[in-house]
């Protein structure tokens, strides 16, 4: 009996030791880590061209990450990804990839087939960020010099995560894009990436919205309109608002928080959409001529700022309706959720109906911070 117990304990010990090992253990020096990819059309416009940004981990005392690039063409993304293994001295490791950058020419033909491989493959992650490049090729972006001087894909991922502080572009990953393809009543918005050449060397900048209709790019929106569309999309997390006063000097307000609600309703037999935004801001810069410590003046600024924001959001929505006809706001989704009987009547023709749906916008801005309680700075002669 004692012998049987001893044998049992020994077997348990052996099994436990084996289980503590990692069945999929790999030395980091044996892997080629893919940080991100760019995808273009090939020069003959018949195939795909994919460039993978690879992180090479240099071993040694002063080990550091160094990027290198592999570019291949093929009939499909799966074909290219598998063929890359044959020209790399190490197996490609996809689970740390952060970004997919596609060219506008490719996006205008549809991204369904491209996204399908990244979503289905066991090694890739569905939370990779998707970006559209308005440069001649997407490869120009991924092979450019990042501001940090390190890995371009990682820098772009960081820029996207910091968008909540700037509100200059939406944030979208593969899973969100794939979901928009099957979801009724909503199309995707993808961040635009460009190369800024003002400093002499091209550096990346994420600024603007690529408007899609299902999987096809139909337009690019840039500049101040981007921010107002983000308000309508309920994707404002921070950033600044400029409000011009009577003396034409801009008043800078810092956004603390913002919330947008979409309310569909029937007016007679006609479907209408009301958008309500509530935004809390802080006074980022004072103006000597405005006495914010007086409640009456502060309320006046709140009313003016609310009206400016309201009109700007409305104008941006009308532009999307009239020029692109793509329901990036999810009006259709909201109608389907709140008014299923109405949606049943409109769903088959929603793409056409969306262009003509009357939209109203109501915006409310509340200023709150300690700066409004003090007198403005007076500059002497």
UniProtKB/TrEMBL annotation:
Residues 207-370 form the Spore germination GerAC-like C-terminal domain. The keyword Signal applies. Pfam families: Spore_GerAC (PF05504), Spore_GerAC_N (PF25198). It is found in: Membrane. It comes from the Bacteria. GO terms for biological process: spore germination. Residues 24-193 form the Spore germination protein N-terminal domain. InterPro entries: GerAC_N, Spore_GerAC-like, Spore_GerAC-like_C, Spore_GerAC_C_sf. It is a lipid-anchor. Keywords: Germination, Lipoprotein, Membrane, Palmitate, Signal. Belongs to the GerABKC lipoprotein family. This is Ger(X)C family spore germination protein. It comes from Clostridium folliculivorans.
